[in-house]
Design brief:
alpha/beta; Spore Coat Polysaccharide Biosynthesis Protein SpsA, Chain A; 13 strands
């Protein structure tokens, strides 16, 4: 059985992260980033030698530091020199719906597929989504602990930039040429050669990085843009048609997106069954315990 690398970002609920890792701990290694704003001690005490912790970043949702911690995780995977078959990106609030045997088998059956989905934002004509890149977005990476004042500043600057006639091009500079921008979910599973290519581009393409640093949620744009402008694009999952929501750009996860991400409970179990997805999010200690117990029983029954 081929070995998987799971890269995981977390900032709270250390008990659930420990449970997630225990659930997936079968021919797999785990690389974890803990938000610098969080207390790392509960994670370190529970996980100890089970994971590789990477250097920590002060993360604000929607800011460039989300790409920087992704880069840390990819670097740790590649510097391990372990010949992983695939790198799977998760959050610390995910949980597997399939047995480990089923997960490995599925990836083995789709060895060349890059499970990352992208919508061509440049050519979409979707004005609300195009505003992610055409309008300048500032201040999300400010290291302010007072989130109320920070959010006020972010909103005010965004409103001002909407009023001003300044706009960015809907393309970015990549490999010396203007390239289309692609948009998708943070959560994906790519092959090791694709991982190596993505990491190299993140390290060397300074103009692309500058472009995305003042875009909205660059972690949903940067890696997708690299992959869909690369030799790996024919094996990735291009999304075509009208944009239906971020859930449609999330290939392996069931996530209920509205104004916020819904917490999964036992009542969602039939929906999880019907989804056919490999993972779900979000799962929270104390609220999702009955659901996790039910999933664990089903995963145990799936074992060969």
């Amino acid at each position: 059985m081929s070995r998987l690398a799971y890269i995981i970002s977390a900032y709270k609920d250390a008990p659930h992260l420990a449970r997630l890792i225990d659930a997936l701990d079968d021919d797999a290694d785990f690389y974890v980033h803990i938000d610098l704003k969080a207390d790392s001690r509960p994670f370190e005490e529970l996980l100890k030698d089970k994971v590789t912790f990477v250097p920590r970043h002060w993360v604000s949702w929607g800011g460039w530091e989300q790409v920087e911690y992704q880069k840390e995780l990819l670097a740790a995977v590649l510097h391990s020199n372990v010949p992983y078959s695939r790198v799977v990106c998760l959050s610390g609030q995910d949980y597997p719906l399939w047995s480990n045997a089923a997960i490995h088998r599925y990836f083995e059956e789709h060895k060349e597929t890059e499970f990352i989905m992208g919508m061509n934002l440049t050519r979409s004509g979707n004005k609300p989504q195009l505003s992610r890149i055409k309008i300048y977005h500032f201040f999300r990476d400010l290291k302010w602990k007072n989130l109320w004042w920070k959010n006020k500043l972010i909103v005010a600057s965004r409103q001002l930039m909407r009023l001003l006639p300044l706009r960015k091009k809907p393309t970015t500079r990549l490999n010396g040429k203007e390239r289309d921008v692609f948009f998708g979910s943070d959560y994906w599973a790519i092959t090791l050669p694709c991982t190596r290519y993505v990491y190299q581009q993140l390290c060397t393409e300074k103009k692309m990085a500058h472009y995305f640093k003042n875009s909205f949620v660059p972690s949903e744009l940067c890696i997708q843009t690299i992959v869909f402008n690369s030799p790996f694009a024919p094996h990735a999952l291009l999304y075509e048609g009208t944009y239906k929501g971020l859930y449609a750009l999330t290939p392996l996860h069931l996530i209920i997106y509205n104004r916020f991400i819904h917490t999964m409970t036992l009542e969602h179990l039939p929906m999880l069954h019907d989804s056919g997805k490999m993972f779900c999010r979000k799962v929270v200690s104390g609220m999702s315990d009955s659901l996790v117990e039910a999933i664990d029983k089903e995963r145990e029954q799936e074992k060969p």
